[in-house]
């Protein structure tokens, strides 16, 4: 029976699931810069059924900050990623969304997806330590600077490499398992922290 379920999930012709990114914002805070964004996730029936049957799905949010250079390749200053795990626990009949050691439970899949679709206060650029700045560490030259222009890029995707092997193979040729966005790229000027 389990093999038949796996075969059914791996094959089929449902519409592809997609993600659209909107309203990305980089905000200055005391510790550095945080990123906020919205993900419009079209989850799809195959992924819903997979989660309901006990399959754990891993989603990755990736952020890059680069400095464009006219004379050479762009310089990548920041590259961050964060993984979210979505699972269903049949005993408690709750969906769980986890990142790192933090997790939150939800009564329905739509509530869990609503939380997954809102990225809030993700620290993507940390302020350098005071003692490192005092020493004049050469690494400080690569740190982003307030008032300069940069190119930011954000992406959301299902990490198919974390799926069980039969699903990884099926994901190569199936649109059902290609849940993800294109890179959302925008130009920004690094804001300064507001004086308090």
Description:
- With 196 residues, the chain is an alpha+beta fold.
- It has one domain.
- It contains five helices and nine strands.
- The protein has helices spanning 2-10, 45-52, 109-116, 130-134, 165-173; strands at 18-29, 32-42, 57-67, 75-89, 94-99, 102-106, 118-126, 149-158, 184-189.
- It has a six-stranded antiparallel beta sheet, with helices on one face.
- A hairpin with a 7-residue loop joins strand 3 (57-67) and strand 4.
Keywords:
196 residues; alpha+beta; 6-stranded antiparallel beta sheet; 3-stranded antiparallel beta sheet; 9 strands; 43% strand; globular; disordered N terminus
In short:
With 196 residues, the chain is an alpha+beta fold. 20% of the residues lie in helices and 43% in strands.
Can you summarize the main beta sheet?
Answer: 6 strands, antiparallel
Low-confidence stretches: 1-16, 131-140
Question: What is the residue-mean pLDDT, rounded to a whole number?
Answer: 82
Q: Give the overall shape, derived from the CA principal axes.
A: globular
- C-alpha Rg (nearest Å): 20 Å
Tally of domains: 1
């Amino acid at each position: 029976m389990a093999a038949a379920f796996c075969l059914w999930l791996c094959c089929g012709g449902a519409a592809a699931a997609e993600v659209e990114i909107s309203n990305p914002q980089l905000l200055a805070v005391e510790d550095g810069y945080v990123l906020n964004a919205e993900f419009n996730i079209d989850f799809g029936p195959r992924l819903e059924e997979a989660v309901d049957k006990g399959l754990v799905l891993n989603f990755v949010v990736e952020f890059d900050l680069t400095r464009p250079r006219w004379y050479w390749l762009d310089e990548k200053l920041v590259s961050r990623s964060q993984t979210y795990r979505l699972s269903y626990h049949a005993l408690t009949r709750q969906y769980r969304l986890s990142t790192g050691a933090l997790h939150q439970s939800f009564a329905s899949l739509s509530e869990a997806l609503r939380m997954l679709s809102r990225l809030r206060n993700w620290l993507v650029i940390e302020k350098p330590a005071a003692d490192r700045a005092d020493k004049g560490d050469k690494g400080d030259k690569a740190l982003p600077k307030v008032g300069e222009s940069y190119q930011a890029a954000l992406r959301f995707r299902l990490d198919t490499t974390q799926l069980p092997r039969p699903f990884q193979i099926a994901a190569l040729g199936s649109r059902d398992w290609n849940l993800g966005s294109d890179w959302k790229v925008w130009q920004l000027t690094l804001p300064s922290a507001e004086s308090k």
